[in-house]
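fold-stage: in
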Amino acid sequence: MDDADDIYMRSWTGTIIGPHNTVHEGRIYQLKLFCDKDYPEKAPSVRFHSRINMACVNHETGAVDPKKFSVLANWQREYTMEHVLTQLKKDMAATQNRKLVQPPEGTFF
C-alpha cells in the first residue's frame, strides 16, 4: 500500500526487477497503481515512477497505456495487482521491448 491512511486501499506501490537476458536485467522499477471506486470491475491505472522505455508506456508521464497493454485493455475482475506486475515484466522481455535503449538507471518521471 502506498498510504497507510487510505482506508479504501486504492493507492499501491509496485516493484518489478527487470527480466534476465534483456536490457532491463538487474534494474529495479517502481510503479504506482491506483484503483478507483469501480475496482475490481474496472482496471487500475498504472504508472511507472522509474523511467523506462517500453512500447506501452508514455515516454513523458510513465503512464501505461491501456490500449497498448493487453491486461488493462482486456481487464477481468479476477485479475490482481500481482498479475498486472507479472505481465508487465513479461512484456519487458517481449521482442519489441527487450533491446530498447533505456534511460539512465535511477531516473524518474
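fold-stage: in (second)
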Amino acid sequence: MASEEGVVLILETKRNPAIWKKFDLCLMSDNHEMARCKSCGKFMKAAANSTLKKHTDKHCPVTKAKKEEKGEGSGSSNV
C-alpha cells in the first residue's frame, strides 16, 4: 500500500450476527469500511458475508489451530 491506513472507528452493524460476532466493522482512515477478524486481525472487504464466513471456516489461522486441537480439522468422520 502506498499510504499507511489505520482504523479510525469501530462501527456497529446489524448484519448477520452469526458471522459478524467474529468480526469488527472498521471505518478506515481513507473513509472506507473493512471487516477485521477478531481472532487473527486480518482485514477484508466488508461487502460479502460469504467471504467472511469462508475466512473463519477455512482460512483463519487461529480458528484452524483451535479446530485441529479439538480434532475437527483432520477431515475424518466419526461415523
